[in-house]
Amino acid sequence: MSAPIVHGGGITEAAARFGGRFEEWLDLSTGINPRPATLPDVPQQAWHRLPDRLTVDRAREAAASHYATNGVQPLPVPGTQSVIQLLPRLVEAGRRVAVFGPTYGEYTRVLLAAGFAVDQVERAEDLTPDHGLAVLVNPNNPTGRAFAPGHILEIAALMKANGGVLVVDEAFGDLQPELSVAGRVGENDNLIVFRSFGKFFGLAGLRLGFVVANDAVLDGFREWLGPWAVSGPALVISTALMAGDTGAIAAGILERRAGLDAVLDHAGLKRIGGTGLFVLVEHAEAGALHRQLCEARILTRKFDYAPRWLRIGLAPDADGDLRLAEALRSVAMRPSGAI
């Protein structure tokens, strides 16, 4: 089994290494809305009983509208990670897998652990008839690279000609709906789209995602996950929030992103990518900068495979922006080479 990947959000581990109480830390290491949506009332029945068909159907209808799936009813799943674990079941033994990268590392980790050869690719031209599965994150994490829907559909057609499947992870797609191919699944039976609920709504702890695909694929995922895979409260909450004022949520995220941009630009950090929920910066001493920010009780995301990169998420308010700005100013004032 391959080694686990270090993801963002590890405040407990950071505090154990650098000190401070959990509550003292500013977590900028994730790509999650720092202003969680207000939770709707959840009826006692949702906690008391197993989720019934009506509860599931209402969540699927709300997701179909929110993700503009053109009539396809998305399948609720207990977080996108749960279905990433199932991807090896979609690939024929002996075929290779292509992952457009660098990107979210769990795809490669899971598929390698299942015994598949995995190729990191950058372009559609890198795909070969040997690839039974291709994975593309759009917009990408952490670079923010975006593929136009037309290009993605060309990749899906190429994979279909070779008897393969294309998975498009749109976890960070809520703020860029023009990039989504969720509405094209009905006419592309080898196209699977993953959507994350928790990132945009700021409720990652709910562990909820959706799969948009043809009925045969959804039936497979449903069987593999087993009955009642998603809790009743998660279904009720998602139904209400997806039918609510998502425009206000998006505006709040963009306001927080503008605050982060201003801080980074003032500090002279080079922005090289990102999405509405995070920024990727390049710095010659990114590892040292990460450490210095940890000493100020601010956690960012560093990358073993890209030592000049830091991914920085959104602070919940202007006070968080100010705290980051002061920490960066303190680092800049240190003697040359001290970072």
What is the compact description of this entry?
Helices cover 37% and strands 17% of the residues. The chain is of the alpha/beta class and 339 residues long.
Structure, explained:
This protein is α/β, with parallel strands linked by helices and about 350 residues long. It folds into 2 domains: about 10-30 and about 245-330, Aspartate Aminotransferase, domain 1; about 45-240, 3-Layer(aba) Sandwich (Aspartate Aminotransferase, domain 2). Helix content is about 35%, strand content about 15%. It has helices at about 10-20, 45-50, 55-65, 80-85, 105-115, 150-160, 200, 215-225, 230-240, 245-265, 285-295, 320-330; strands at about 25, 75, 95-100, 120, 130-135, 165-170, 190-195, 210, 270-275, 280, 300, 300, 310-315. The strands form 3 sheets. It has a 7-stranded mixed β-sheet, with helices on both faces. Strands 9-10-13-12 form a 4-stranded antiparallel β-sheet, covered by helices on one side. Strands 1-11 form a two-stranded parallel ribbon. α5 (about 105-115) links the parallel β3 (about 95-100) and β4. α3 (about 55-65) runs parallel beside α9 (about 230-240) and α10 (about 245-265) packs parallel to α12 (about 320-330). The chain is globular, with a radius of gyration of 21 Å. The chain starts with 10 loop residues before the first helix and ends in a 7-residue tail after the last helix. About 40% of the residues are buried. The model has no long low-confidence stretch (mean pLDDT about 95).
Write a concise keyword list for the protein shown above.
Aspartate Aminotransferase, domain 1, single chain, globular, 4-stranded antiparallel sheet, 12 helices, Aspartate Aminotransferase, domain 2, 13 strands, 17% strand, 339 residues, alpha/beta, 7-stranded mixed sheet, 37% helix, 2 domains
